[in-house]
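User: Hey, quick favor. My workstation is busy. Could you predict this chain's structure for me?
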Amino acid sequence: QAGKGTNMAFSVQLPICETSVLPAEDEPIEVTLPRPMAVPPQTAETVEDLGEKLNVLLVEDNVVNQQLTRRLLEKLGCSICVALDKVRQERYDLIFMDCQMPNMDGYGATTRIRELETQSATRTPIIALTANSLPADRKRSEQAGMDEFLTKPIVKEKLRQALSRWTATTRH
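Assistant: No problem, here it is.
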C-alpha cells in the first residue's frame, strides 16, 4: 500500500579488485563465438610454473568474462583458444565451459563433446564456469559430464588449483 512500509539503508565495505576486468584501450575485443582469439606471446614474468604450456579451450560468450578469464589463464601459463568449433579439430588439455550461453548452453555443449569423445576414446576434463552456485546447478553440470565446478567471479587461485589438479591427471 502506498505510503506504508519500512525504508532501510545500509553500507557495505568492499575490497578493491586487484585485476582489471576491462581490456586495455589498444587491445581488440572479440564479441562473437566461435572465433579464435589472438593470444599475445607469454613472458617469463607473467607465467606461473605449471610445467609445460597447457592448451586450453575457453568457451565463454560474455566479453568481459572472456577477457578476464583469458588473462588469468595466460598468467598461469596457458595457450588459450576461444572457439567451441575447434574441439573437433584440436586436442585440448582442459576446457573451461561457461554454463549460461545463448543458443547452446554449456551443459548442451558438454554433452555433445562427451558424445564425440566416445568415438575417439579420449576424455578432456571440462570445468564449469557459472555464476549459479546452487547444489542443483552443480548436479546439472555433473550430469552433463563436467568434471569440476567453478563459480564466477573467477578467482585466480581457484583457477590455478583446478589447472594443477586436472592437468596432473591428464598428463599421466
